[in-house]
Amino acid sequence: MRNLRPLLWIGIALLGALAVATIALHRGEQINALWLVTAAVCTYALGYRFYSKFIAAKVLALDPHRATPAERLENGRDFVPTNKWVVFGHHFAAIAGPGPLVGPVLAAQFGYLPGTLWILVGAVFGGCVQDFVILLFSVRRDGKSLTEMAKEEIGRVGGLVAYASVISILVILLAVCALIVVNALKQSPWGAFTIAMTIPIAFLMGIYLRRLRPGRVLETSAIGFVLVLAAIWGGQWVSQTPSVARYFTLSASGLAMAIIVYGFAASALPVWLLLAPRDYLSTFVKLGTIGLLALGILAMHPTMHMPPLTRFIDGTGPVFAGKIFPFAFITIACGAISGFHSLISSGTTPKLIRRETEIRLVGYGAMLCESMVAIMATVAACVLDPGTYFAINSPAGIAGALPDKAAATITGWGFPVTAGSMQTLAQNVGEITLFNRTGGAPAFAVGMAHIFSNSLGGQAVMALWYHFALMFEALFILTVLDAGTRVGRFMVQDALGHVWKPLGRTSWYPSVLSTSALIVAAWGYFLWQGVKDPLGGINSLWPLFGIANQLLAAVALCLATTIIIKMHRVKYALVTLAPLGWLVVVTFTAAWHKIFDLDPRIGFLAQARQIASAGGNARLIFNNRLDAVVTGILVVLVALLLVESVRHWIAVLSSAKRAMTTESPFIATRLVEERG
Amino acid sequence: MNILRTLTAMLREIFDEAAFARYCRREGVIADREAYARFVREPKAPKVRCC
């Protein structure tokens, strides 16, 4: 058997190469989605078996005999030695969010090829490596956070930049998440009703958990899930009953206000009442739906209708403006590489790891699964007819506000679609219209409903599948929103506590209310800006989010490279230096375009000038200038960190400075080797 | 069978049931309303959810 192993890996490599060649070289013919799945599975298998093993053995030198903080500091609360598969599930549930679903759907405007290749290469050589190394470095430092490690290893500048990056990315991320929900639920009484119902369902779950069945979270989540399904069913009745539907047919502004109020409530209310039950419910739905989508794709093996490359690689795309380089690489973050993951790899996960050698499975392996989710999202978007995809994702300001005008514009781009076919599709999924439903979530929901309805239940239940998909996305986007607002509130309280001690107390209500208001006002401002943006908001805010997220990844990789150099493994530093170099080039180029590009659809300053010369709204001019300033500040912060890090590297390499790392001293493990 | 056990353990950890069981063991209390109320109030690191 052992002798056959090399043959097996050669077979996997050949199959993977064939699959990648098929998706890359086919022109003019539609291909089956299973080619994408095969390419992904083979690439991930090879990456895990060979690259992650190389990193584990040569670069990081994982030591099975070294006690982890979960063992040394075990307290039954935060530090608990846990089975590797349990930690894997825990870590995956935390890193998998709406990002790997939305980014690939938006990037599909370039065709399926650029996004797919970036997801595969980015994950194997970037995202998985980042999650893996940060997790190990945190484990070797008693589970310290990214900002603490940056401060200790790179100095005060490193700590400050990491802190500022985390806060900025949180604010922009929350605004973008809220905007996606607004675009998905506006003028959709069915969707708005279903999501509105999840709030009383969460209250009920909270009270049930607290009073009736204390601690029975799985049972409570299952009950919540059944109630959510009932709410989806009820939503159909609501949408077909005009007297009720009008209460749930909300404008974008109305929805934005509702979400802002909700975000404040979720941050200020007791955790057990709203936030925790929503988190459980969302996780329950998320894990189930991702599994279901994978089964649906395997069972249906649908044909991809999107071409491998579209004409929009030239930067004139309607979904968002900008050329394939650098914009495809910042549009897809989660799924390829996401800086946000480094917060989780240096958060709860390192405190659960039982043995160093298990970090490879958790850090590298869980990110590979997340990348697979991004591939499935690409499939969901690309099984749609391109005309339908562009009709859903093009803002009214570009395609036209009226159905006939929008259909004519999109057909003129070379992607035939008619107002009639879109009307039929909208009726099939229970919507008033599907034109101009930007943000990625509705297109993903239509694609997912298309896959599900062809495998389970047929066309008759397409509307239910569509609203299930929409509810699933909105539910876990809102979970990111309330968990993120709370985390942001804690960070602000922590910082303000240095100025005046009572402000740092997380249980002092004046502080809770004022800091919640501060965080909600910050993301609420960007959300409002997105809602009022004539180009749909996503065009401005998603790239800003992509830049912020990838810059955070640059911070994490900078820290990782510094530690690798201090560990005297400079010959392997390319493992983190290469993705860092790529991210710096991509994000700095994207930031330059977003600030200074002369095309008003791309450059914030050019758009501000255009609005000013047309005598437009002063608020819109200010917003564009503000976006330019925010982008500039992020880039300057990361540039500062880079300079500081390079100074450290040179000092260590030239022996001008002793390489001091803050690693905890070696203590031998007392845990007995366990199988499985 | 082993897979099922691991899967259940994974779900119990994700959904904090295992954390509550540990709390009860640590504090030497039975799993009732009061214990759960105290467990919920216990200061914990905020859960970050990725985008």
Largest interface: A-B, 60 and 36 residues
Cα end-to-end separation of chain A: 21 Å
Q: Tell me what portion of residues of chain A adopts beta-strand conformation.
A: under 5%
Number of domains of chain A: 1
Mean pLDDT of chain B equals 87
- Uncertain ranges of chain A: none
Task: From the 3D structure, determine the CATH topology of chain A.
Answer: Amino acid/polyamine transporter I
Unreliable sequence segments of chain B: none
Which CATH architecture of chain A is right? Up-down Bundle
The helicity of chain A comes to: over 70%
Number of domains of chain B: 1
Silhouette of chain B: flat
Q: Could you give the count of β-strands of chain A? A: 0
Write the layout of secondary structure elements.
The complex is a heterodimer of chains A (676) and B (51).
Chain A: H1 5-25, H2 33-59, H3 69-72, H4 84-95, H5 99-107, H6 112-139, H7 146-154, H8 156-185, H9 189-212, H10 217-240, H11 242-248, H12 252-268, H13 275-300, H14 324-331, H15 341-345, H16 359-382, H17 386-393, H18 396-399, H19 403-412, H20 419-428, H21 441-455, H22 462-497, H23 509-532, H24 538-566, H25 574-596, H26 604-613, H27 618-653
Helix pairs in contact in A: 1-2, 2-6, 2-16, 4-16, 5-16, 6-16, 6-24, 6-25, 7-8, 7-24, 8-12, 8-22, 8-23, 8-24, 8-27, 9-10, 9-11, 9-13, 9-22, 10-13, 10-22, 12-22, 12-23, 13-21, 13-22, 14-24, 14-25, 16-21, 21-22, 22-23, 24-25, 24-27, 25-27, 26-27
Chain B: H1 2-14, H2 17-27, H3 33-41
